[in-house]
Amino acid sequence: MFFLKKTRKSDGWLSFALLADGIAAASVRCAPSARPAVAISHFALGGNGADALDKVGRELHASQYRSVVLLAGGEYQIVTVDAPNVPADELRTAVRWRLKDMLDFPVDDATVDVLDIPVDTSAAVRASHSLFALAARNSIIKPRQERFTAAKIGLDAIDIPEMAQRNISAMIEPEGRGVAMLSFGDDGALLTVTFMGELYLSRRIDVPLADVLDADFDRKHASFDKITLEVQRSLDHFDRQFHFISVASLVLAPSGASGLEEYLSSNLYTPVSTMDLADVFDLGQAPQLAGAAEQQRFFLALGAALRHDESEPGQQINLFNPLFRKQTQLWTTPVLGQALAAVLVGALLTAWYANQNVATLQREAELGRQMLAQREVRLAKVKAEFAPRGKSAEVALDLAEAETRLQALRDAAAVLERGELGNTIGFAGYFKALARQQLAGVWLTGVSIGAGGTDLAVQGRALDPALVPAYLGRLTKEQVMRGKAFGSLKIGPPAAAGEPGATAARFVEFNLESTMAEVAK
Questions:
Q1: Which class for 428: exposed (0-12), middle (13-18), buried (19 or more C-beta within 10 A)?
Q2: Which CATH number applies to 2-333?
Q3: Burial of 355 (C-beta count, 10 Å sphere; 0-12/13-18/19+)
Q4: Which of 31, 136, 183, 338 makes the best surface tag, with the fewest CB within 10 Å?
């Protein structure tokens, strides 16, 4: 709905540093293979309350950015603790329990976050793993969030100076070596050591900016002595604890302090140089940052503006406490009135639309009833015209007769297949076979075929009894004679030869009788 619409924020950060004399706000634009360009470097002289923030926010269109504010050095505590062996989602709870004896205020009244300290991944023996534990009083976090809420600036993160300084130090690290950086502010000096873009050391030195800018020679050099001693001790301790990191140099953040670089160079074994922000930032849109004093004022604000998203790899902290986020009252009286009006209009439109649909549905239902009545009338007419006919007795009789004839034909075919009627192919084959087999000295006197061709009897005469077996052998080679066995063979003189006074016959008579036999396979 239009009254719930939110302004889309850009990808950049707008950082705020609440200084003693006013508000420093900064934003940078980052592009690949180019120095970060300073887009905003605004300083509002005066107070840093909600009214002043509101004015700055409106001038800079803060609603178009994600906003981050820096805590001052005395508004939080940072301590080093051993990393507890717990899952990541339980890490803050475990660290909070360890901090209860390390803070100068009750841990239950603190907002806590942790910062991982990377270990030497190339070490043969795994070193102990440590964390930076950060804690800030809720009595500081809650009013800070409420101040931004009152100024109508949507605060997304609360950061610390160590991380802002880390962001700038990471841009000047030489390949494979670490960098120590020393900056000054109203709350003292801050020494950090970074390696591969990660924070490894943080030390506060009780020497504010005013002490290194003091015009009195003796007081200023007393401050230089204190700084030298604290820096040397810190670097020696760092070298013992993180021996795998070689610190290339000590870089002094812009401060305008004369003589500090020379003094440290003559008393430290580490090379010392002073930074110019123009070497790491594109100041084309911020010519007012040419001087050391202005660079010192915006140093931490610019570092905080380099903040990366928490979803990206690398160290990141955020002391913003969601418990103190002011709940937006969406249902205020004007908004509630608009919502009720919208609901009323929607209800009226719904009722009108429903009435229209009901009328339409009623017309369609009536039309459907009329069509149904017409179809029922047509169905009745069709049933009357095409009534089902009864069975015909004549057709049933013809069908029964046809089935009887069909069964008779089937029975006859079965008889023929079984050979119950004997030979069904005639007797011509037998006679052709007998005619083809002519043997000199053998002649037939009679042929008898019976039992449908199953039984065969052949009578004949032969001049020599030895011719009969030869004839029989030739006869059985005929196709029609195969499968037949001559079960009876009689050879003898003619019947008349046995009578008294009869002369001896010159031939013999034979009688062959056959039966069916199985042919061996």
A1: exposed
A2: 3.30.420.380
A3: exposed
A4: 31
Residue pair 187/175 in contact (Cβ under 8 Å)? The answer is no
Question: Nearest Cα to 172, choosing from 285, 244, 112, 249?
Answer: 249
Note the pLDDT tens digit of each residue in 434-465: 888 788 888 888 888 876 667 788 888 888 88
The token pair at 488 is: 């009876």
**Helices then strands, each counted (H, E), the chain:** 12, 17
The domain defined by 428-516 carries CATH number 3.30.1360.100: yes
Amino acid at 46: G
Q: What is the pTM of this model?
A: 0.63
- Residue 28, classed as helix, strand or coil, is strand
Pairing relationship of beta strands 110-116 and 130-137 according to DSSP bridges: antiparallel
d(CA 422, CA 451): 6
Consecutive H or E run containing 160: none
Separation of CA 318 from chain center = 31
Q: Determine the residue type at 66.
A: R
Do 133 and 122 contact (CB within 8 A), yes or no? no
Write the CB contacts of 518 (distance below 8 Å, at least 6 apart in sequence).
Answer: 483
Structure-token match 């608009």, residue found = 338
Domain definitions of the chain by residue range:
2-333, 397-421, 428-516
Classified as helix, coil or strand, 216 is coil
Distance CA 390, CA 333 (A): 86
Residue with tokens 């942790």: 114
Compute the residue count for the chain: 521
State the pairing for strand pair 130-137/77-82: antiparallel
- How far apart CA 396 and CA 391 sit, in angstroms, is 8
Q: What is the DSSP string of 455-504?
A: EEEEEEEESSTTHHHHHHHHHTTSGGGTTEEEEEEEEE--GGGGSTTPPP
Q: Are 227 and 241 in contact (CB under 8 A)?
A: no
Distance between CA atoms of 502 and 499, rounded to whole angstroms? Answer: 6
pLDDT, tens digit (0-9, with 9 covering 90-100), for 339-381: 888 888 888 888 888 888 888 888 888 888 888 888 888 888 8
Per-residue buried b or exposed e for 129-151, using 16+ beta carbons within 10 Å of the residue's own CB: ebbbbbbbbbebbeebbebbbeb
Q: Are strands 37-45 and 110-116 parallel, antiparallel or unpaired?
A: unpaired
